[in-house]
Structure formats: structure tokens, C-alpha cells
């Protein structure tokens, strides 16, 4: 069968042959999905992005106002680029950290820092592709630089943007990271998939801070993830008694999404939580020191909030009794 596929691939135009090869290599290197779009201007995202920034929904994330043109046009971000290769990488854990008498941390932060892990995997994948295709110009992005990841992933057919503004797939839910290879290869673009949120409002109904304010629009300044990670100042009193023990990030809108019943556990050893995350409880977190923070989160995304930020979050949460079961 493999010989037949190889023989047929020789008969295909380069852009189709290379596209098939890239998707095959993406699967080999552990990516959940791979889709391709033509590099260019995201016309349908221009006005929504301008409106989002104009409404101040980005809160104190001033960096979102930078490089407006490059956010919308990948040919300005990567000169000479012809294709955007979008990829997803599963991070859904086999076992969740206990929330009994515990503060909560987003599942993506159980792991070592995904930026470097996925970036290194992509470097190896591109090196192998260049051995087979020949040299080509590219840049790799993993939640970095001004790239509208969800827009490109939606355009490439990986999934649709749900009402919680996360990318969702029917087969795998939404617990995955997104990454891109923007390159000068002429590739065969994929088509977007249809929206399957329907009349479901589970994410909207479950959000304790009412951060989902419109169709696929999140008021970041109301979001628990924003308050616990991005916000550098004191957490506003409007969050009091609404954070449901989240000390870093928030998974509520994903946890209640019906499509996430199809999520399966990842098989990436570097995404396994360390033993301290598995064993610590509220009393332990309240005694957290700078030294312990540095030890526990040395390779973790949690280091982004710094020791002072995590202590601030814990102190703001205080003692919230566990719900009765």
C-alpha cells in the first residue's frame, strides 16, 4: 500500500505532493491535525479585530495593539510566504490534578513549557521535510509573534471557532495547542469546516464572570485566565467569589463543552505534571516561597505569572469552601 501511495504521489503536481507529504510528516511527529491555507490578508478578521481592540476587550494586553497589519497579513510578517501550515498538538491529560481542597491550574500548564517543546518538534519536522523537498524559506510560530492562530487554523479546516472563542473539532474537542509554519512553498489549500456549536450555550452559561459577551467574543478583562496570568496589577473586586479556585488560567468553558467528551489523553511525556503539582493542596500553596516556586515551575508556563503574581492570585482566592457532594 505504501508503495502504491508513493507511486501515485510521483504523478501529482508538486503542490499536492508536498501538501500530502507535510501532512504525513505532521502525523509522524505527533501532531493531531494539519491544515493548509494560502498566505495573505485575513480580510474577514480585520474589522472584528479593530472592534475588539476599540472596545478594550484586551484589557492590559497592550501588545495586541502592536503590528496590526502583520497580524492580519502573513505576507507582511514573513516576506515571500505563500502558505500557512496550521497544526494542533494534543495536551489533554490522562488524569486531572485533584481539585479537592486545592486551587486549580489549567490543564495546559501541567506540562513543561509547550512553546519550546513544540518548537523543537517543528524544527526537526522541517529539517526532515527539507531533506525530501529541498531548501525552502520558513518561520515557525508557537503562540508567538503577531499571528492570528485560530483564524488560520479555522481557514485551514482544522476546526471551527466556538462560542467560547476556542478552536473546536468534532473528533478531538479543544484541548490542543496551535502552531504554524509559514513558508514560501506553493501548497494545496484546505477548506474551512462547518460550525457545529448549534444552539448550545454551555460555555456562555457556565462562565462565572460573564466574559463571553458576544458571538465568539471574549471580554478579556472579565476572563479568569486574563486575571490570573496577563493582569499585572491587583485583581479587581468584580472577580471576588467568582474565580472558583482558579489560581492559574481557567478551563471552565472547555470543560463544559460537549465536544470535549471526545478528548483523548496525550502521549507526550513532557506534558506530565510533576509530583508536587499532584500532591500539593491549599495549605501547601499558601506557604509557597520564591525558592519553591522556582523549583516547581522552572520549565512551566506558570513562570509567566511570576512568584508575586501567583501569590497574589492565591491570596485573592482566600478560603473558599469546597462544594458539597
UniProtKB/TrEMBL annotation:
UniProt cofactor(s): [4Fe-4S] cluster; cob(II)alamin
Where in or outside the cell is it found? Cytoplasm
Binding of [4Fe-4S] cluster 2 occurs at 207, 223, 250, 253
Chief subcellular location equals: cytoplasm
Describe how the cofactor binds.
Binds 2 [4Fe-4S] clusters per monomer.
Q: Where is the active site?
A: 143 (proton donor)
The entry lists its GO molecular-function terms as:
4 iron, 4 sulfur cluster binding; cobalamin binding; epoxyqueuosine reductase activity; metal ion binding
Identify the EC number(s). 1.17.99.6
Q: Where is the 4Fe-4S ferredoxin-type domain?
A: 185-217
Q: What reactions does this protein catalyze?
A: epoxyqueuosine(34) in tRNA + AH2 = queuosine(34) in tRNA + A + H2O
Where along this sequence does the record place binding of [4Fe-4S] cluster 1?
A: 197, 200, 203, 257
- Pathway membership of this protein? tRNA modification; tRNA-queuosine biosynthesis
The family note in this entry says: Belongs to the QueG family.
The family database entries (HAMAP family) matched by this protein are listed as: QueG
Q: How does it assemble?
A: Monomer.
This protein's name: Epoxyqueuosine reductase
Name its species.
Chryseobacterium taklimakanense
